[in-house]
Specification:
The complex is a heterodimer of chains A (377) and B (490).
Chain A lengths: L1 H17 L10 E11 L5 E8 L16 E8 L2 H11 L3 E3 L5 E5 H17 L8 E5 L17 H10 L5 H4 L17 E6 L7 E7 L5 E5 L14 E13 L4 E21 L2 E16 L8 H28 L6 H7 L1 H10 L3 H4 L1 E11 L10
Parallel strand pairs in A: 1-4, 1-5, 5-6, 6-7, 12-13
Antiparallel strand pairs in A: 1-2, 2-3, 7-8, 8-9, 10-11, 11-12
Helix pairs in contact in A: 7-8
Chain B lengths: L12 H11 L6 E8 L2 E8 L5 H17 L5 H12 L1 E4 L2 H9 L3 E5 L5 E4 L29 H11 L5 E8 L5 E8 L5 H12 L9 H8 L11 E3 L2 H9 L3 E5 L5 E4 L17 H30 L7 H11 L6 H21 L2 H21 L5 H14 L5 H21 L1 H17 L1 E2 L2 E2 L44
Antiparallel strand pairs in B: 1-2, 2-4, 3-5, 4-5, 6-7, 7-9, 8-10, 9-10, 11-12
Helix pairs in contact in B: 2-3, 5-8, 9-13, 9-14, 11-12, 11-13, 11-14, 14-15
Classes of the chains: A alpha/beta (377), B alpha+beta (490).
Subcellular location (chain A): Membrane
Organism (chain A): Alicyclobacillus mali
Pfam family, one (chain A): Spore_GerAC
């Protein structure tokens, strides 16, 4: 019996001693909801944290711009050291689990994108569903946006990105959950490009190569879906097509809603030359057509052909611009499909991805609206 | 004690009267009525207030009339002829006489006879059958047990008019001499269960049974657990339902409740009303009660964990609101929770003990005034008040009082564990609780049956309530002799 109580006592003491390590009252936390990262002239990282303000929070070493936000800035060689410096300015513990937005400047992306992602991924407090966005110029200019809502600015910005009318569905795609699939299928990240001066703050997409290249692409659907065609998967993209109408014998316009599009890559190495095939298929329906227009089989065929041509043209333009902006779209996919070939090509000619041939296989499939979800892709 | 050493009555009525006076220390409420009968002196003895005096008067008048018409027959023979009609039992033992007088009977002595006649003219003070106060329902029967055992058994017989209903009486309590009745239905209840309960009842050895709880604590399994292992109810129809399931009932004299056993965990979440409404409506209500039970145990603990260890699980806007509420509160969340729960328990206890009108005032003052003032004074946060109030409401959804009391204790344990270990501690304590529940037996029936061990057919009346036409078999967990409840299907 004595031994039994001794064991119980030892276990209880052990539990008591080893517990409470993570104990922290909620009001003692400085809840960070957004971060911006800039590189200073001396190659330090400047991190500005948007801390959610509770009714009594406040600190002498901070500056506040709005009621809901408290902005605190710190510098350091890495994100960790910058956050340490921010911590020194606060009387509460920095808490990163509620961070929803990370704003990166183009300079940070060019110089330290890979290491930055590494730090973000390894921080045990940071969640994987935070959104990464890019700003041309200083990232902390984002905090100058006037916030009239009751939520902190970072949350307001994130909601604005997700609700951007033009690209709502496309931007809600899982690809924008930054670290999960950020490199599929190309090995580049597609990040929202923010501009504080723009009407909706969203200017377009930035294709970011882990090695530092950035290709900026403004998007104005349905006229110009541009780089959106390149995303691995999209939902509900709208495309306006100008085509030669066989029913009327003159030019007509229709809007196609692509319920689902998918892009993948294929590689063929022949006679010491790499050829990349971009496979695209989409399943959509006619959303808007001229009144009285009868869409027969011929019309669908013409429409599909025209849509295919337009999409191929957009993708081609996009790839060309990526290449010129030093964004390697093939690296990750080739490495996964043929790692040995990838190594050989890297060794022989590091710029192989700029010169390889590209061919396109485009499969648009357009149906009447009622059939769209049931048609095989 | 005056009287014969062999424990038998004397042939002299005066000696018997002196013996009774000596036994009851000349109690002032011990009354006698001397009269001459058949040429010799006779006494009727009783305790004032326990008998119907008018019935004694009427009985004596009848005896005298009979005597006048039949002068030749002896008193003993005469009385024996009348015994059935007048509900009398003859005895020669002194102890029987004492017990009978104390039990509200009148005793008739006659000079020259060594026999006394115990006369059932009992009229014990007590209340009449009333509405169920502790287990109220909107539908179904409303009668409740009273403190009179005979009346309680009559209430059961009224509903269960079967010749197979068996009653075994036990006298427990050396001084109180309380009658405890064991009821079961022959041909349904497992004989081993009857034997086991009888055996445990016979072993109860105490001087007094002032309430049913004395018997319960003596016979219940797992005496140290906080969970009830015997079902208590004040509703006769619930007892009848239990008897028809193959369980046994125990009625204790002087207690307006009845015990039904064995009892499983699921039965404490079951309300009688479940059977009085359509099964489609009873099903969600029963599920709701299960959810509410676990909420009442876990809600404050989870709240404390989320606020002190696992803030990442709280939605961001809520973190801001709670943080604002908590700003300026001088106590850590765990102490705030314990303080509020303690205050809530105090209010509940005060509301129960105080007279009904005052109790209501205390509740209103406590909840509205003190709660509001505490938030304004910055002693507790509004969120904590909401959580504790929600927990209190959730705990009241459990129909069984014993289970409600168990959750009250468990809440404190869980909050302490959450304050020290966070959600991890809550999970560990939860696992220990399940292990404990799984280890309990109620008269051989696993407490978590029919979930653990899994008896799928019994799920029809445990987690859910199937329609009556689909519950053709009695619960297997009680191993009834006759497992079929319905001979055909709808």
């Amino acid at each position: 019996m004595k031994r039994y109580w001794l064991v119980v006592l030892v276990m209880a003491v052990t539990c008591m001693v080893t517990s409470c390590g993570d104990y922290s009252e909620v009001e003692d936390l400085a809840v960070v909801v957004g971060m911006s990262m800039d590189e200073t002239s001396n190659h330090h990282l400047r991190v500005t944290c948007d801390i959610m303000r509770s009714s009594e929070s406040g600190s002498d070493s901070t500056s506040a711009n709005q009621n809901q936000d408290m902005l605190v800035t710190g510098e350091g060689l890495s994100m960790a050291s910058a956050l340490e410096n921010i911590q020194k300015k606060l009387d509460k513990r920095i808490y990163l689990s509620h961070n929803t937005l990370v704003v990166l400047s183009d300079k940070v992306i060019s110089d330290r994108f890979a290491s930055m992602l590494d730090e973000l991924e390894r921080n045990r407090e940071l969640r994987l569903n935070q959104m990464l966005v890019v700003v041309r110029g200083d990232a902390d200019q984002i905090w100058t946006i006037s916030n009239r809502s009751e939520t902190p600015l970072a949350i307001t910005i994130r909601q604005a990105i997700q609700n951007w009318e033009a690209c709502t569905d496309a931007f809600r795609a899982e690809q924008f959950r930054m670290l999960r699939d950020w490199n599929a299928p190309y090995g580049v990240a597609h990040l929202p490009w923010l501009d504080p001066q723009a009407a909706n703050w969203v200017a377009g997409l930035a294709f970011v190569d882990p090695r530092g290249g950035i290709a900026w692409w403004s998007i104005c659907p349905p006229r110009d879906n541009g780089a959106l065609w390149l995303l691995g998967d999209t939902r509900n993209l709208v495309q306006k097509i100008v085509f030669q109408d066989p029913f009327r014998g003159k030019e007509g316009q229709v809007c196609i809603r692509w319920v689902h599009t998918h892009t993948s890559l294929g590689f063929r190495y022949h006679k010491n030359k790499l050829c990349v095939t971009v496979n695209w298929w989409g399943n959509g329906y006619i959303e808007a057509m001229s009144p009285g227009h009868v869409a027969d089989r011929t019309t669908f065929k013409v429409l599909e052909d025209q849509a295919g041509r337009d999409i191929q043209r957009d993708i081609h333009q996009c790839i060309t611009r990526m290449r010129s902006a030093d964004v390697n779209l093939w690296r990750m996919s080739l490495y996964r499909t043929a790692p040995q070939l990838f190594r050989i090509l890297e060794r022989k000619d590091p710029s192989w991805w700029k010169t390889c041939d590209v061919s396109y296989v485009i499969h648009p499939h357009i149906v009447h609206s009622g059939l769209s979800t049931r048609s095989p892709g | 004690m005056t009287g014969r050493a062999d424990g038998l009555l004397s042939k002299r009525v005066e000696d018997n009267w002196l013996m009774l006076q000596a036994c009851l220390a000349s109690a002032p409420d011990l009354k006698r009525m001397p009269f001459e009968w058949n040429g010799s002196l006779a006494f009727v003895v009783w305790i004032d207030g326990l008998v119907a005096a008018e019935r004694i008067q009427m009985g004596l008048s009848i005896l005298r009339l009979e005597e006048a018409s039949k002068k030749s027959i002896s008193s003993l023979k005469h009385l024996r002829q009348q015994a059935l009609w007048m509900s009398m039992n003859a005895t020669e033992k002194r102890d029987d006489v004492v017990t009978a007088v104390l039990g509200g009977k009148a005793v008739l002595f006659q000079d020259g006879l060594g026999t006394a006649f115990i006369w059932d003219v009992e009229s014990l003070p007590g209340r009449q059958v009333d509405r169920a106060e502790n287990e109220p329902t909107l539908q179904g029967p409303q009668e409740a047990f009273v403190e009179n055992r005979v009346l309680n058994i009559a209430l059961l017989r009224k509903r269960l008019r079967s010749p197979d209903l068996r009653i075994l009486d036990f006298t427990i309590g050396e001084r109180t001499r309380t009658t405890v009745s064991l009821l079961y239905v022959e041909g349904i209840t497992k004989p081993q269960l009857i034997q086991e309960v009888s055996s445990r009842l016979s072993k109860v050895c105490i001087d007094g049974v002032v309430d049913m709880n004395v018997v319960r604590e003596w016979i219940a399994d797992a005496p140290r657990t906080i969970f009830p292992t015997i079902e208590e109810t004040e509703r006769p129809e619930r007892v009848v339902s239990g008897l028809l399931q193959g369980r046994v009932a125990i009625v204790v004299d002087g207690t307006p409740m009845c015990m039904v056993l064995p009892a499983t965990f699921a039965q404490f979440i079951t309300s009688p009303e479940d059977y009085y409404m359509h099964y489609t409506l009873a099903l969600p209500l029963r599920l709701l009660r299960h959810i509410m039970f676990w909420s009442s145990v876990l809600l404050p603990a989870v709240y404390v964990s989320l606020l002190t260890y696992n803030q990442d699980l709280v939605p961001t806007p809520l973190v801001q609101k709670i943080s604002s509420q908590r700003a300026g509160i001088p106590f850590p969340t765990v102490f705030e929770a314990l303080f509020m729960m303690f205050a809530f328990e105090a209010l509940r206890e005060a509301g129960t003990r105080l007279p009904r009108a005052v109790g209501q005032s205390v509740s209103i003052v406590g909840t509205l005034v003190i709660g509001e003032a505490a938030v304004r004074a910055g002693i507790v946060s509004a969120g904590m008040i909401i959580i504790v109030a929600a927990t209190g409401i959730a705990s009241f959804t459990a129909p069984a009082l014993g289970m409600v009391q168990a959750t009250r204790l468990l809440q404190f344990l869980f909050v302490l564990c959450a304050g020290v270990f966070g959600l991890y501690g809550v999970a560990i304590l939860g696992i220990l609780l399940i292990v404990h529940l799984a280890s309990i037996r109620s008269f051989g029936v696993p407490y978590l049956a029919p979930v653990g061990p899994t008896i799928l057919t019994d799920w029809k009346d445990a987690l859910v309530r199937a329609p009556w036409w689909d519950m053709g078999r009695r619960p297997e967990e009680f191993e009834p002799v006759d497992p079929k409840r319905a001979r055909g299907r709808r």
